[in-house]
Amino acid sequence: MNKAQLIKNIAETTKLKPAKAKEALEATLTTIGDALASGDKVKIVGFGTFESKPTKERMGVNPQNPTEKIVIPARNKVSFKPSSNLKEIING
User: How far apart are the first and last CA of the chain?
Assistant: First the structure.
């Protein structure tokens, strides 16, 4: 499912107009992104937890020249831990 399909589904489920469903989804995604950027966890009960986790600088290999070693800089990555409820829904 892509973003447009998600918006359509939200609009149909909530009886919102698609423009309002799009606005609500974009506000939700922006809020989650802003919270993660500031180092906060985002926990949605019954769905899961989003968290920004730092990775350390490490050595890697240049994919275009496998003999060349490169430094992969430290960065933050987003992790998602699904709730037990979401796991049940997915696994039946």
Answer: 19
* pTM given for the model: 0.80
User: 52: buried, middle or exposed (CB in 10 Å: 19+, 13-18, 0-12)?
Assistant: middle
11-33 residue pLDDT tens: 999 999 999 999 999 999 999 99
CA 63 to chain centre: 26
Q: What is the pLDDT of residue 92?
A: 83
At position 52, the amino acid (one-letter code) is S
Residue 80's DSSP bridge partners are: 50
Site of tokens 């796991």: 87
Q: CA quadruple 51, 48, 25, 20: dihedral positive or negative?
A: negative
